Amino acid sequence: MSAMSARAGSFALGNRSASRSAGRCRKAGRPVGRRVSTVVRAAAKPRDDQPENWELKYLYDGGCTVCNSLVKLLKSKKGHEKIWFEDISDPKYSPDKNEGITFEEAMATIHVIKSKDAEVMTGMQALTALYEITGMGWLFKLAKLPVLSSAAEIAYKVVSKNRQAMGGAADGLLALGRINMEEKGEGSCTDLEGECREKPPPVDEEAEEAARAAEERRAKIAAEKEAEATKTGGGPTSVKKNPAATSKGGLENAAREKPPTTSGSLSDRRNILGVYDMRRSKSDERALRAAPVDTETGELIDELITIPLDDTELSTVAGALTSIIKHFAWQGNVGIAFPAIRVDTTEEAVNETMDSFDDEIRNMSSSMIAMEDGYAAEKLVTSGKYEEMEKQRIEEKRKREKALKAKSGSARLNAPLASQSAEISTAADSRQSRLEVENYLKNAVGRDVVVMSGPEATGYGEMNFRAEKLATGTTVCVCLGKTAGIALFDNGILAHNPADVERQLATYNYPRWSNAELPREENTPTEEQWKRWADRVEHYLMRIEAVAKPDNFIIAGRASATFKYWSKYVTNVKTPFFNAEQGMNAAVLGAGKGASEILTLRRDTARVRAAIGHAKGLSPQKLDEEQLSAVFDELDEDNSGRLSLEELTVGINRLNVKLTEEEIKELFIEMDYEDTGDINKREFIAWWKDSIGSSGVEIIHTMNEYEQVLDDAEGTDQLTVLMVGVTYCKPCKAFSKKYQDFAERFNGARFIKVFGNENKDMTVLCRDELKVKSTPTFYFFRNKEQVHMHTGANAGKFEKFILANVREGEPGYGSERQFEDPVEDPKKGEKRASPAR
To answer: Please, what's the b/e burial string for 474-491 (b: 16 or more CB within 10 A of its CB; e: otherwise)?
Structure first.
């Protein structure tokens, strides 16, 4: 990735030890000095800039206006010739030549090195030495006066932002304020140039303690499993049973490899944090149930925890999810399962006369309603009832939408995402809404988050980790309780719920079932109550059976706990139905497993998209509908207007993308929105657009995503713009809206953004790959090659450089300037940011 690297140096991110030591120094409120190993200076060749007879070396940040002001003040005083000024922002700065002090450590607090004995002084001790050697020790006494102490602090902050306008008169105030700020342990960051060189916030000691506790728990669990395996004769590398889960499945996999103790990583698709947003027993209250999952063995690798939710808003879920991540010290990916959106029914919304078709459906021959040639049922055409049902369905939909709008004021559609209820539609057209929820949670927690429904997560858990394997074919996982949800799996691969199947959700809550609630075992229900519940389940399963013709049903949710009491009364369902084996852990295991599967699918999707883009000489984001239509036609070898699995396989192979048969099938099912067994042009274009996304600025959370962005651009000659920030950078936050506006104005380029302190992946990218020193920093790439880099949140500077880098024919080329360039101060020779018009 050398082409992506910028200037030398390193980014002050993720260095816990440096931040921690600096934090302790300030907390103690006393000077800190440290002895380092003796350095034989006679052997070293003097540098050209090394002053004679120097006594102190001051490590300062040449990119910080305040630091430069202090250097200027010191140099104006007698005794400055005894100070060696070393700029840590210089690309040639070397820790080896400065007693091992890294850029991160030097950024954390002021450092001064003594020539005599190589003692390293920091903080107030360092500042005292500099002022005394230049005859300004009296300033310390002045700064201690109560009246001047607060004034100095205020003056420091004001002057640091107006340094150029005040000229030399500011230097004394800055020096006075610098003492006061150092004593309080505050940094000296200034955003005069629109850059942030501020030290990171203090280390979260609570988070570090949680990390240590998590590591100890996981090690203990692993040791207990080892001991249990050895005790039962299974050997040290096999596992008898996972004590943290009720699962009996996954034992063949567990015997192959010992699950590692890990806190995960964003490139790890095996160990995933599984989270299930569930309705708590005996109430409608919600809670998050979570544990890290080894998706290969079906084991929980840490304890299972439950966090109650105060309400169902997405922002509340995000806060609880952040707490869970902190508890497990989790650095990896997250899979979260939400309740399926409840389909409420009233006599006005869904007419009871629809039940008059129940008996007809039961008696119809399978040929009328079976899925033939990849199409959903014949829609009752031969019975003469199709047109009547379709008219009724449209009218019901209109009434239902009207009722919901009157009830909630279309709150779910119009409310901000954060305040919306955390529920997920299981309909085939719900992909975009899921991606919006995922993006919200990704940005909230700083991890890659995969969203699915509770039935889908439960299905993943059961399909992969149950001991009793099911017959091949279509399996429908049905979650039953106060609400109902369904998920279809085609030979173990999650499929979209066809509209006909999704429509059956409404029948579960027909008014006629108001007295057929799921009985509670502790209330000692009568047989009549169990029968009434069984009638409701049977009615529901038969309707799904009629339109989906599954090979298996799995009954999950609260109803699975009492399966033995009511299942014997379900006698008219022809499809075999089985009770869930995983209990309440199924959705947690499945959320982890599902996230692993979906992340792999998205990786494959990105590879196919990139290959198609390269073949067209365009970035995938820039292909329009006409070009996508042409791509579809090229894949459609028989010109039928529909892609078969075989045609998609041939097309992918022709693009030289190496996928397994199972991966291609997963991709095929993902494209097949309507679950017809083939892909039409409308489905293909919708899949492409959904997978690309529509945001003007994409926030990248993982190294894989970053590399995929550059891979997408390779060979397309597209301009890619990257903004690097950190979460505590005020100039970054102030520039965000302008960056979004630039993305809309120059929409031929791809605009991305990363936060360097968000997670380990981003820290490595910014600190080690890009060598970021201050934020925001902007990088421009053509294809995969870096063509430009600059720092500072100045709109005029950014506009100047992007106009210089866009080419004729690209959006925004030659457009009128909206911001002024930064101008030079003719008196000071320093840059001054001009206000935006």
So the answer is: bbbbbbbbebbbbbbbbe
pLDDT tens digits, one per residue of 342-368: 655 444 333 333 444 444 444 443 333
Confidence at residue 589, expressed as pLDDT on a 0 to 100 scale: 95
CB atoms within 10 A of CB 331: 20
What lies within 8 Å, CB to CB, of 394 at 6+ separation is none
pLDDT at site 511: 77
Contact predicate 236/771, CB 8 Å: no
Q: How far apart are CA 540 and CA 235, in angstroms?
A: 47
Task: Report DSSP letters for 744-785, one per residue.
Answer: HHTTTSEEEEEETTSSHHHHIIIIIIS---SBSEEEEEETTE
The residues that bridge with 488 in the sheet, in sequence order, are 476, 495
* pTM for this predicted structure: 0.63
Determine how many CB atoms are found less than 10 A away from the CB of residue 80: 18
Q: How far apart are CA 741 and CA 780, in angstroms?
A: 17
Assess contact for 775 and 107: CB atoms under 8 A. Answer: no
- Is 230:272 a contact under the CB 8 Å cutoff? no
Query: Which residues 6+ apart lie within 8 Å of 165 measured at CB?
Result: none
CA-to-CA dists, residue 617 to 41, 282, 469, 488, 614, angstroms: 58, 58, 47, 38, 5
The count of C-alpha atoms lying within 13 angstroms of the C-alpha of 1, restricted to the half-sphere facing its C-beta, is: 17
Query: What's the pLDDT at 306?
Result: 92
Amino acid identity for residue 377 in this structure: A
Q: How far apart are CA 665 and CA 636, in angstroms?
A: 17
Return the pLDDT at 63.
61
Q: Position 278: which residue type?
A: M
Q: Which amino acid is at 119?
A: E
Confidence at residue 390, expressed as pLDDT on a 0 to 100 scale: 54
Q: What sign does the CA torsion over 367, 369, 370, 374 have?
A: positive
Instruction: Note the pLDDT of residue 216.
Output: 87
3-state secondary structure of 452: strand
**767-820 confidence digits (pLDDT tens):** 888 888 888 999 999 988 999 999 888 888 999 999 999 999 888 999 999 988
Taking residue 346's Cβ as centre, other Cβ atoms within 10 Å add up to 13
Omega of the bond prior to 776 within 30 degrees of 0, cis? yes
pLDDT of residue 65: 59
How many angstroms separate the Cα of 131 from the Cα of each of 15, 82, 134, 238, 344? 30, 12, 5, 67, 75
**Strand order in 83-87's β-sheet?**
32-34, 120-122, 111-114, 56-60, 83-87
Distances in whole angstroms, Cα of residue 645 to Cα of each of 155, 279, 603, 615, 819: 71, 39, 19, 21, 53
Instruction: Give yes or no for a contact between 145 and 124, defined as CB atoms under 8 angstroms apart.
Output: no
User: Residues in the chain with pLDDT < 50?
Assistant: 1-45, 147-149, 151-170, 186-193, 236-260, 345-383, 386, 400-401, 403-415, 824-837
Distance of CA 314 to the CA centre of its chain: 15
Whether the Cβ atoms of residue 777 and residue 724 lie closer than 8 Å to each other: yes
